[in-house]
């Protein structure tokens, strides 16, 4: 982190390989609600929880990603959820694990899989509500992991990039005064879109189709998430 006379903060990015920053577009997004974070020392945790805002202004839990940090048999273990306002501490099963996982495995759980265990009505919540998500052992007597999911309220922070000569480091500096004086608690998502330079194409223009000069543009995307609390 750095700050100038106005006490603005920037984010320092470092890469083992040079990056052509002039062909990289960066978007910084802030949400005052925190992403799911590890609240125990268990060897399994939820690393992402996707949600969608519905037409009636409610939110729907659409997917979960679970990271297994050590070799472990999760057969029979469950993911359970409880609405903080409606369920009065009662937890409902929304997914059952059924096998042994090796360290480093990421388990993607879609809305279809969640809905197989639980009606969508129990996967929705309002802006004033939150959902407690936990992973428990087969008997339900031990909580392996727990976290709270709140409705998303993202805000895009316009930023610029200042890189060093060899392209291995760059500062992402917010153009407004959003990060002035302090870094606010909440969730941050730093999205980098890198445009692959193709012969005959020099413009930075994002597309998946053939453009006017008959050159197809391709790109690579990287997302970095971090939470302050």
What's the SSE blueprint?
Elements: E1 2-3, E2 9-14, E3 24-31, E4 44-53, E5 59-68, E6 72-73, E7 78-83, E8 92-96, E9 100-101, E10 106-110, H1 111-117, E11 124-125, E12 131-136, E13 143-149, E14 154-157, E15 159-163, E16 169-174, E17 186-195, E18 219-228
Task: Provide structural commentary.
The longest helix is centred in the middle third of the chain and has 7 residues, at 111-117. The two termini are 17 Å apart. It is built from one helix and 18 strands. Strands 1-2-16-15 form a four-stranded antiparallel β-sheet, with no helix packed on it. It has a four-stranded antiparallel β-sheet with strand order 14-3-17-18, with no helix packed on it. It has one helix spanning 111-117; strands at 2-3, 9-14, 24-31, 44-53, 59-68, 72-73, 78-83, 92-96, 100-101, 106-110, 124-125, 131-136, 143-149, 154-157, 159-163, 169-174, 186-195, 219-228. A hairpin with a 5-residue loop joins strand 4 and strand 5 (59-68). It has two domains: 2-32 and 153-228, Immunoglobulin-like; 44-149, Sandwich (Immunoglobulin-like).
Tally of strands = 18
Overall CATH class of the largest domain: Mainly Beta
Annotation field: number of helices: 1
Strand content: over 45%
Shape: globular
The CATH architecture designation of the largest domain is Sandwich
**What is the topology, as strand order, of the major beta sheet?**
1-2-16-15
| Percent range of helical residues | under 10%
CATH fold descriptor of the largest domain? Immunoglobulin-like
Overall domain count: 2
Sketch the topology as an H/E string, one letter per element.
EEEEEEEEEEHEEEEEEEE
Class of secondary structure makeup: mainly beta
């Amino acid at each position: 982190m750095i700050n100038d006379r106005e006490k603005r903060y920037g984010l320092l990015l470092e890469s083992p390989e040079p990056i052509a920053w002039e062909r990289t577009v960066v978007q910084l997004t802030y949400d005052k609600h925190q992403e799911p974070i590890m609240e125990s020392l268990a060897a399994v945790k939820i690393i992402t929880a996707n949600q969608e805002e519905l037409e009636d202004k409610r939110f729907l839990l659409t997917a979960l990603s679970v990271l297994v940090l050590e070799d472990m048999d999760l057969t029979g273990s469950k993911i359970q959820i409880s609405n903080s306002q409606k369920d009065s501490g009662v937890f409902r099963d929304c997914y059952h694990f059924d096998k042994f996982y090796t360290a480093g495995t990421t388990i993607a759980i879609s809305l279809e899989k969640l809905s197989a265990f639980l009606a969508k009505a129990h996967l929705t919540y309002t802006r004033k509500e939150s959902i407690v998500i936990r992973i428990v052992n087969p008997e339900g007597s031990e909580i392996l992991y727990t976290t709270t999911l709140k409705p998303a309220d993202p805000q895009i922070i316009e930023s610029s990039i200042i890189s060093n000569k060899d392209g291995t480091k760059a500062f992402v500096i917010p153009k407004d005064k959003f990060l002035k004086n302090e870094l606010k608690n909440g969730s941050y998502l730093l999205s980098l879109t890198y445009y692959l330079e193709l012969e005959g194409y020099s413009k930075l223009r994002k597309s998946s189709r053939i453009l006017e000069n008959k050159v197809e543009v391709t790109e690579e995307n990287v997302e970095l998430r971090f939470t302050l609390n």
